[in-house]
Amino acid sequence: xxxxxxxxxxxxxxxxxxxxxxxxxxxxxxxxxxxxxxxxxxxxxxxxxxxxxxxxxxxxxxxxxxxxxxxxxxxxxxxxxxxxxxxxxxxxxxxxxxxxxxxxxxx
Amino acid sequence: xxxxxxxxxxxxxxxxxxxxxxxxxxxxxxxxxxxxxxxxxxxxxxxxxxxxxxxxxxxxxxxxxxxxxxxxxxxxxxxxxxxxxxxxxxxxxxxxxxxxxxxxxxxxxxxxxxxxxx
Lengths: 107, 118
Prior knowledge:
The structure holds two protein chains of two kinds.
Chain A: E1 4-7, E2 10-13, E3 19-25, E4 33-38, E5 45-49, E6 53-54, E7 62-67, E8 70-75, E9 84-90, E10 97-98, E11 102-106
Parallel strand pairs in A: 2-11
Antiparallel strand pairs in A: 1-3, 3-8, 4-5, 4-9, 5-6, 7-8, 9-10, 9-11
Chain B: E1 3-7, E2 18-25, E3 35-41, E4 48-53, E5 59-61, E6 69-74, E7 79-84, E8 93-101, E9 106-110, E10 114-116
Antiparallel strand pairs in B: 1-2, 2-7, 3-4, 3-8, 4-5, 6-7, 8-9, 8-10
């Protein structure tokens, strides 16, 4: 299985801060990477696919980059409604696998 | 508007079979345009892909299930189901059904999830 490692596991930032999460795959996954946002008690929500393509309706303060094994997810200006846990997920190989999640909190 | 809704027993005894159903509205699951699947999340933990299928007959399971899982489809009710045999406490989780885009690429529509305790 492809292992997906996210860092950090959690972070605390102020409203308006730039927030960056990294996701590393255990092998080359080209750009076959999704990012999800999960708020407490809710189902995950797809934010981004193909590593950097925003899903329709997702605010432009969210962005992604990377290819191969190293990927980055950025919130350019953290908003209160962005408090959530974020997951990366690879779709290069079966079984599909997720990172362990990054919990984003407001300082 | 596509919607998915999971249903099933909240409590299952160890060694028994867990059965969950996902009812889909807004699109026919017999369309070959989409794959459909199950994902679970143990309490306080991350997400695990379980299994997915499309109506043309392609079905994929996570090997971590050790052949305990089976997906069935009822097109007359626009539902699909997951059966998981010989459950243990490790199967305690919130179970989500979801629609995939591409070939099991990602999940763009999710149900609200149903909690199962073993």
